Amino acid sequence: MRPEPLPVLWMNAKHSPVILSQAARGKSSMATAKKVKPAAIAPALKPASSKLNGKAISANATGTPEARETARLLLDIEAIHCRPENPYIFTSGRTSPVYIDCRKIISFPEARAKIMQHAYKAIEKSIGWSKIDVVAGGETAGIPFAAFLAALAKKSMVYVRKQPKGFGRMAQIEGDLKPGKRVLLVEDLATDGGSKLVFIDALKKAEAKVTDCFVVFHYGIFPQSVETLAVAGVKLHALATWWDALEAAQKGKYFDEKGLAETRAFLEAPEQWSANHGGRPPAPRLTGR
Fold it and tell me: Is residue 35 part of a domain?
């Protein structure tokens, strides 16, 4: 029997990972099932101890009740996938034992409502809705989350294209955006933050004031994600990170022992884990989300 090929993420015009080929065909295996037979540990990298230190994981997690429940809900709706024996490959060239698809949130009304309420409160606490005039969604994954939040906050909403549409008004920003408005950019997730600059630049060219970006999920393991936006004068805010997901997975027994150990090893040293599992170093440019 031929071994199943590694899944590959499709690269869009801005080099952002969009969808897993195997997941799209419904063939993605996940360690979210509670009864999973552990696979043999890959010899290329010595994994973390199977007896994970819960306190160490919690110390790295966001630590808020909202982050913990968000992570649990993402696991419940199977938006989080864990497959260390057949790693996911990202357009950056990295391999990873885990993958998250925040787009699944829109299909689950109860989970969606809870996560958006948590997001609304987190934004009020970290930024303050009184300091926001317009909520902007980044094409395409950020659009529904921007709409949900704009409705909750009773704020105006626009969405930003990756590039002008190429006809008619040649618009890159859809909706009504007046110069000088304070805009919150909303996206589903952030890895290294590179694609956010496209949206930020477009908003600034429209004379909007952009100082904050909010994502539902932040990888939280690539320092450049925060640094990249900081250089542009924008602060990154997130509801939950991979450390929150790992903590929830351990407490709820969503991952088997191999999944937990390999995920923690990846989070502690993502480039090393990737290199030891067939990944290649990312190109010296901003290619992630």
Answer: no
Q: Which amino acid is at 45?
A: L
Place of tokens 């320092």: 223
* CA pair distance 160, 172, nearest whole angstrom: 6
Contacts 24+ apart (CB under 8 A), 124-132: 126/237, 127/184, 127/212, 127/214, 127/237, 129/153, 129/155, 131/182, 132/182, 132/183, 132/184, 132/212
Q: Same structural domain for residues 129 and 143?
A: yes
Answering whether pTM is above 0.70, one says: yes
Q: Is residue 87 domain-shared with residue 76, that is, in the same domain?
A: yes
Number of other CB atoms surrounding residue 224 within 10 Å: 16
| Residues 182-211 pLDDT 10s | 999 999 999 877 789 999 999 999 999 999
**pLDDT confidence of residue 47:** 38
Residues 227 and 251 in one domain: no
Nearest C-alpha neighbor of 150 from the set 122, 114, 186, 179 = 186
Residue 56 pLDDT > 70: no
Cα separation, 120 vs 112, whole angstroms: 12
Distance CA 113, CA 120 (A): 10
Phi–psi pair at 132, nearest 5 degrees: -120, 125
The count of domains in the chain is: 2
Q: For residue 246, what is the enclosing H or E element?
A: helix 242-252
Q: List Cβ neighbours of 117 (8 Å cut-off, separation of 6 or more).
A: 152
CB atoms near residue 113 (< 10 Å): 12
Residue 40's pLDDT is: 36
Distance CA 175, CA 264 (A): 42
Residue 268 structural domain: 9-27+47-101+243-274
Residues 196 and 72 grouped into a single domain: no
